[in-house]
Design goal:
Layout (H helix, E strand, L loop, with lengths): L10 H14 L8 H19 L4 H5 L5 H25 L3 H15 L6
Helix pairs in contact: 1-4, 2-4
């Protein structure tokens, strides 16, 4: 497997790859925070569409069907790609933002018995 096609687990490397992909195609003028937020919303809606009419039980088994599983994975990838591009444009560290938000939620919503 070539370096270019090896799965990446490093968020920063994926973010750089997305930025380079867009730059090579001269898409930066279109990658404004507003446009990326809109694209993120559209992709999240496409993920939701897969589940729209499923029962809770059917939705829990959605990954058992290879065709549907592939659609779910593609939409998850699209959502994450637009989120990472959005963060890159605004200079937001998504992992730091998530860590801080979890901390605030832990204080705001203590576990029972705490």
């Amino acid at each position: 497997m070539t370096e270019q096609h090896r799965p990446h687990r490093d968020l920063a490397a994926l973010q750089r790859r997305l930025t380079e992909f867009a730059a090579a195609r001269r898409w930066e003028p279109y990658h404004t925070p507003k446009n990326l937020a809109a694209a993120l919303s559209v992709e999240a809606s496409e993920l939701l569409e897969i589940f729209q009419w499923l029962t809770p039980e059917e939705s829990a088994r959605v990954m058992e069907d290879p065709g549907t599983a592939h659609r779910v994975e593609d939409e998850v990838a699209d959502v994450l790609a637009y989120l990472l591009q959005f963060c890159a444009v605004l200079g937001v560290d998504p992992l730091s933002a998530l860590d801080a938000k979890i901390g605030r939620n832990e204080e705001r919503f203590p576990a029972p018995g705490e």
